[in-house]
Design brief:
Layout (H helix, E strand, L loop, with lengths): L16 H11 L14 H4 L3 H7 L5 E5 L1 H13 L3 E3 L3 E20 L2 E20 L2 E15 L8 E5 L7 H11 L3 H17 L1
Antiparallel strand pairs: 1-3, 2-3, 3-4, 4-5, 5-6
Helix pairs in contact: 4-6
């Protein structure tokens, strides 16, 4: 039988010493590290750059922020996808317009772990031939938020920029074709993951 809620809630007056260390560590840079490993929240990682050198004498923890390198590298890789040929036309990636996210490598107890989270938008431009009539089409390809190890589950969405002179079935064909960029994009991002691990 449990005593009435004693274990469940620790009031602020009776903070146990172990919790106290934890809260102090959140607030100051020189508090002792916790003996217990804590799951790293990527959102926390970027703001603690000073911790690495401040108390990492034993090499138990080192964290590298790789945001600049990774954003540049992702853009470079995705811009190199080139053009794809389809049954009625072809298209190419013309620009990576949004590349927001972060990447990092963490060195904990002689083990390196890498991670990232990104959202991407790419501009596509192509030309389709419907019944002898060539139509130039532009669109955006959105890759919703994805993280390290999730490339098999990538979700993409296509929005056409200008579709006023397209019939419904033409529009459907073009969106279907543009979705085929998923495969080369996934390959480039897999290459990015390998390079990230090597850093």
């Amino acid at each position: 039988s449990m005593e009435s809620g004693s274990a469940a809630v620790v009031s602020s007056e009776k903070v146990q010493s172990s919790s106290y260390t934890y809260w102090v560590r959140e607030a100051t840079s020189d508090a002792a590290p916790l003996p217990v490993p804590r799951k790293i929240d990527p959102a926390d990682v970027g703001n603690k750059k000073h911790l690495g050198s401040a108390w990492n004498q034993a090499g138990t923890w080192e964290e590298k922020n790789l945001n600049t390198w990774s954003s540049d590298r992702i853009k470079e890789l995705l811009n190199s996808v080139g053009s794809l040929d389809f049954s009625h036309g072809n298209a190419q990636v013309t620009e990576v317009t949004r590349c927001s996210g972060e990447a990092f490598s963490i060195f904990v107890r002689n083990k390196k772990r890498v991670g990232y989270t990104y959202e991407l938008t790419l501009k596509l431009k192509g030309e389709w031939d419907f019944g002898g009539e060539k139509k130039t089409v532009k669109g955006h390809l959105d890759l919703s938020e994805f993280s390290f190890g999730e490339l098999d589950d990538l979700q993409i969405e296509i929005k056409l920029t200008d579709e006023k002179d397209l019939a419904a079935d033409e529009k459907q064909q073009i969106i279907g074709d543009m979705k085929l960029f998923l495969h080369p994009l996934r390959e480039k991002l897999a290459q990015f993951e390998e390079e990230l691990k090597a850093r």
